[in-house]
Amino acid sequence: MRLDVEGVSKRYKGSGWGLQGFSLSLEPGVIALLGPNGAGKSTLMRILAGITRPTSGRVLWNGVDVGRNPDAVRAVLGYLPQDFGVYPHLSAEEFLEYIAALKGIEARVARKRIRELLAALNLAGVRGRPLGGFSGGMKQRVGIAQALLNDPQILIVDEPTTGLDPEERVRFRSLLTDLAGERIVLLSTHIVSDAEATANSIAVMAKGRLLSVDSPEGMLRSMAGIAWEWVVPSDQLAAVRRSHVVSQTVRRADGVHVRIVADESPHDDARATSPNLEDAYLYVTSGAAQRATS
């Protein structure tokens, strides 16, 4: 089972490139697309879902070009878009029956599958309630249910934790991890902790390009020596932010404890520390890695 993105670019009229020369190979597990808003993550997901056609490049599913044979991937694809909406007056069960009909799933098969999904996603007890009364996390679980109706081999979820409270975010992360198994789960997010909690592999994007791809552990190993801690007075914090890439600040009695991402120590009083994924992400996206090799 393999999904290959080969040199995919997308140009929008009047607004430039959404993707440029993007290549990535996906295998079973959770792969996080991590990048700031506007990085091109949603553009890539819409291309993989067959909603948007690339300007150039191709996508292969088990060696089959899905641009020439889109049905090859549609039958095995589940998609939860960022702007997923529901009909507020329909119950969860009614809504899923409606989506199943749109997907061409036979009614008897759909009813059995819906019962299984509602139970698995802890929604069986509220299946008859109108969706308008659901919390954000419950609506996202309904979104996952509709994406899983055809038991897909590829599950694409675009910024699924945006707007969720911390408890719902933790629950949703666990759900994505549980869903991986023998399927490819592609998670788009700009939240580093989402990628850290769920992903086997992290692909960092910015401005439509792939900057790096590695396991979380591999990413941290490759970033040894780029994180520093420095205690500064409060009145110097603004100047430090202007001259350095700051990943974290914590105010304590002795001053502001600042984490800085840099190739070299920012000050004689700074001390080296082990990088975390937030540090590594900022290092890659800030351009520090490019400057180090230029």
Quick rundown:
With 294 residues, the protein is an alpha/beta fold.
End-to-end distance: 38 Å
Could you list the spans in which at least 5 consecutive residues all have pLDDT below 50? Answer: none
Strand order of the largest sheet: 6-7-8-3-9-10
Tell me the β content.
25-35%
Helix count, DSSP H or I runs of 4 or more residues: 11
User: Could you tell me the radius of gyration in angstroms?
Assistant: 22 Å
Report the strand count: 14
Q: By helix and strand content, what is the structural category?
A: alpha/beta
Average pLDDT, rounded to a whole number, is 91
Q: Bin the helical content.
A: 25-40%
The coarse silhouette is globular
Sheet with the most strands, sense and barrel status: 6 strands, mixed
The helix/strand order is: EEEHEEHEHHHEHEHEEHEHEEEHH
Descriptive notes:
The protein is built from eleven helices and 14 strands. By secondary structure, it is α/β, with parallel strands linked by helices. The longest helix is centred in the middle third of the chain and has 15 residues, at 166-180. The strands form three sheets. Strands 6-7-8-3-9-10 form a six-stranded mixed sheet, sandwiched between helices. It has a four-stranded antiparallel sheet with strand order 2-1-4-5, with helices on one face.
